[in-house]
Amino acid sequence: MQYGHFDDVNREYVITRPDTPLPWINYLGCEDFFGIISNTAGGYCFYRDARLRRLLRYRYNNVPLDSNGRYLYIKDGATVWNPGWKPTRTPLDKYECRHGLGYTAIRGEKNGIEVRVTYFVPLGDSLELWDVTVCNHSPRARSLSLFGFVEWCLWDAQDDMTNFQRNFSTGQVEVEDGAVFHVTEYRERRNHFAYFACNAKPAGFDTARDAFVGVHEGLDCPRAVLAGRCTNSLAHGWAPVGALQLDFNLKPHASRRCHFLLGYAENREEQKYVRPGVANKAPFRAVAKRFAKSAAVEAARRQLQAHWEKLLGTFQAEVEDPHLARMLNTWNQYQCVATLNLSRSASGYETGIGRGMGYRDSNQDILGVVHLAPQRARERLCDLAATQLSDGTCFHQYQPLTKKGNSDIGGGFNDDPLWLPLAVAAYLKETGDASILKAKVGYADKNQKKATILDHLELSLRYTEHNLGPHGLPLIGHADWNDCLNLNCFSSTPGESFQCAGDIRGSRAESVMIAGLYCAACTEMAGLYEFLGQAEAARAILRRAETMRGAIVKHGWDGGWFLRAYDARGRKIGSRECEEGQIFVESQGWCVLGGVGLNDGRARLALDSVKARLATPNGIVLQQPAYATYHLHLGEISSYPPGYKENAGIFSHNNTWIQIAETMLGNGERAFEYYLSMCPSTKEAQIDTYRAEPYVYAQMTAGRDAPTPGEAKNSWLTGTASWAFVAASQHILGVKPTFKGLCIDPCIPRAWRGFKVRRVFRGKTYHIEVSNLRGVNRGVKKIAVDGEPLSGTVIPPEAGGKEVRVRVELG
Ligand code: GLC
Ligand code: GLC
């Protein structure tokens, strides 16, 4: 079945039937106000924090899956329908949804009436605009009603779903001039409210869900819509909603345009009220005035478009492969921005009430966006460093609104600290801005002690060095990157946290993956010190890495690949001695990335073992053989049925490390084959199996041991986004920022005749043209920069003018 197609020119994914295998989602917003929106207009929005400042209620795990959203109902005689098909699911004569960069445009047509609506969050504002046009394509005059509908969340999305003894009494609204204001808890400790309004004067409204929808009815048959009339209800407790009714009389072939405003506003404490009990709506009025006319809405839309074009203009490639082209130029970078904005916190699958910003996740997210948003990357790095504790461990997560570490989960995930050096190095390579190292951010437990970012980086390496196990390999703590490999926990009680139930003090379990990651972090730190002109410090760090490499070769090598870990009792994990879980992908990736075994054949052997044992046509599975039963001493990994998640699923994120590792060994064929095997755009060809959006990466695709191999889950918020962009742009195309300048060193399939890249880097625009007439995988024969031959592969920042022409010949 086909559900849609890419419109590469307009950077849109066009969905042509609403009954996609899963809701296919897009994101709105790029600063403080965000929303997710599905192809049937489902979803929710929030201000900064998907848990603590949620505007719209969304029903997770519901039937239908994607329930509640930004619905428009059309009542046209006896027919009631939605342009996005849901919730009524009245069959449409025409339907189309275009997910674009920061907007979603839905078009539905029924009985000669067409409704087009574009949803977006304008730059610099905290609201959604729904730009609606209703057209009468029929030869007769028509009278119809259009209802806009949202259901308010009582701010804290977790409490909203659970605390009914309170919530059924607290809901409050105000209605003024046809606009609905959600003011629950405004009377006490909140100074913010939400609004739902229309630029055209509504014929009626509802704010009580019981009145608009009914008690026994569903959103597919709301009473007020069926009756054709809102009841002007005022909600007192229960479930406040915003419903606005517009009545249209449309002559043949006439159309009407209007727009809804759904937003968030704050008042200063002393300006909360205009009179007792009446909220000050001034912040709303100012916004409504600016967006009074359609022209203003249109201008905001164009501004948003220009913003994205400019952003993406930082990196654009011309390559032969259409999948690579559209992922690199549009969708992969777009997804990277979504992960920067939200880490793993808010999607259709991540309820936004859980983990907030993850330390390791958010550090890795930096890698894919630092070229697009260096300033935001810098701020994020400082926020992250501020959640490190003075002993070097890091809060595993923090809430975006408060920026406070989540103490329920705490620290002790021993890979966490090491991602900061990687992310800061990426920032420095991109920008050359060494001032970040002096930025004072303190520690989460000792804020008075203003440690600099450089102090944090040093502490991160030392944390690993001070937490080594019996084999001289890093202790794993609660878990490393693989949150589900819990070697110190032993949980036999249902519902307990696999990661935190165990006491990790005195833990002896060691991680070979962290060992490799540490080596990579050392290499980055050495480069950084060299960049600062501190050659001795750089050499000292390289020696520390060598020591760790020695330990890996001695205790972390299993003969054909790198071991994964030692468990709490010193038994090997990821060894051919094991019955299950003989080989894991993560340690193969990170040991090679950490420079282990590059010259003695181990790296090649390890990657060949990955190919032989873990590679499948849909990507590389995490480990083999899958764990058939639950193993107390391994934790959550073995809790998943074989083939899913970390238990031998294709965990997209770590596939990218193998792609990079293959380029390090010069195998451009395999690197790209792996790239395509998990590339979402290639999944259009098997979409009924794959099911998830073909324009963004999903966290996982079911592995070959699963009953549903090839089925993807948990799209959008995954570290895959950043790493896939790094792998493709920096390692396959080989256009790589380094401390010393832009390096060009591709590793591509032999069949490629060449490619072009436009890259903005440290204030200059590089127009890079690579030709591969000799059909090699790798090897730069010569480079000319503005016509001048360059020795080596790194273009120093001072070479060339503002527009730099770079010609590269491989061979
Ligand atoms: C999820 C987590 C990430 C972890 C990965 C593997 O993607 O967000 O932190 O590394 O799973 O367990
Ligand atoms: C669960 C997931 C894992 C994720 C973790 C985050 O353990 O299986 O993928 O990293 O939760 O907390």
Gross morphology is globular
The largest β sheet comes out as: 10 strands, antiparallel
- Taking strands numbered 1, 2, ... along the chain, how are they ordered across the largest sheet? 1-2-9-10-11-12-19-16-15-14
Contiguous uncertain segments of 5+ residues = none
Bound molecules: alpha-D-glucopyranose
Distance between the termini: 43 Å
User: What does the average pLDDT come to?
Assistant: 97
Helix content: 25-40%
Instruction: Indicate the radius of gyration in whole angstroms.
Output: 27 Å
By DSSP, the count of extended strands is 42
Strand content: 25-35%
Question: Which structural category do the helix and sheet elements fall into?
Answer: alpha+beta
The total count of helices amounts to 19
